[in-house]
Design goal:
244 residues; alpha+beta; 6 helices; 10 strands; elongated
Length: 244
């Protein structure tokens, strides 16, 4: 039967919650970004608020969208997640508009693309890590290296590596507490000693994972050789920590 179709506001809002939740799930999965339940529901609620302003004038809608994406960044603290969510949303919405009568194919296509990506596309081992100590913070790029098996003597604490230049700004080097010396071996250096110190915490942003009071080994030279990363994470780092 042809004619106007009435969709109630509350039903439309519920549909938007489900659709936006699906898009966010795709985006986070593509990025391997862990979302806690609290952040996940906060995101989809913010994404769905513009449902009530869809018939507002264009300047108001643009203003609201800017607020939404600003909140995404403040909550998720990841530019890559915001960009991925935006691109996935644009692609899915465009496909829906292209074939409006078969719009559910957008969800099906997105799921198939996600499964293909997870199975066949190489995953990046570079993460963004925010290091905090004594109220000071610094962001670095970190390589997840399964070859890093360094522990303190006795195997009680894992040790990640970081270059001195990258981390020096967050420490008062005249008041280092509980430093340790860690024996290590590497290519070209069969035996050596590494200076390791505790740091208040670091957060692996893509995993939304906080590691409290970890030990980091200080290395004088550039770890990557080309500036791609300044830190090397321990191979077991994702098995500990707290989701935030």
């Amino acid at each position: 039967m042809d004619g106007p179709v009435i969709i109630y506001g509350d039903l439309f809002f519920l549909m938007q919650l489900l659709w936006n939740g699906y898009l966010l799930f795709l985006s986070a999965s593509l990025m391997h970004y862990h979302l806690s339940k609290r952040i996940f529901f906060a995101f989809i609620l913010i994404m769905s608020l513009d449902t009530f302003f869809v018939f507002q004038r264009i300047p108001m809608r643009i203003f609201l969208l800017l607020i939404e994406w600003g909140l995404f960044y403040l909550i998720g603290k990841s530019k890559k997640l915001c960009l991925t969510l935006f691109m996935v949303s644009v692609a899915a919405s465009g496909f829906w508009m292209l074939i409006p009568k078969l719009g559910c194919l957008a969800a099906l296509l997105g799921t198939l693309v996600l499964l293909f990506y997870i199975k066949y596309i190489p995953k990046s081992d570079i993460y963004t890590v925010c290091c905090s100590n004594d109220g000071k913070k610094v962001k670095v790029k970190a390589l997840y290296d399964t070859g890093n098996r360094l522990y303190l003597s006795g195997g009680s604490e894992m040790v990640s590596l970081i270059s001195y230049e990258a981390i020096k700004s967050v420490f008062d080097w005249s008041q280092i507490k509980d430093p340790r010396i860690v024996p290590f071996s590497s290519v070209g250096n069969e035996s050596g000693l590494l200076f390791a110190i505790p740091i208040d915490s670091f957060v692996i942003l893509e995993k939304n994972l906080e590691i409290k009071h970890p030990y980091i080994g200080i290395v004088e030279q550039d770890l990557s050789g080309n500036g791609d990363f300044q830190m090397i994470l321990h191979r077991d780092i994702f098995m500990g920590g707290n989701k935030i």
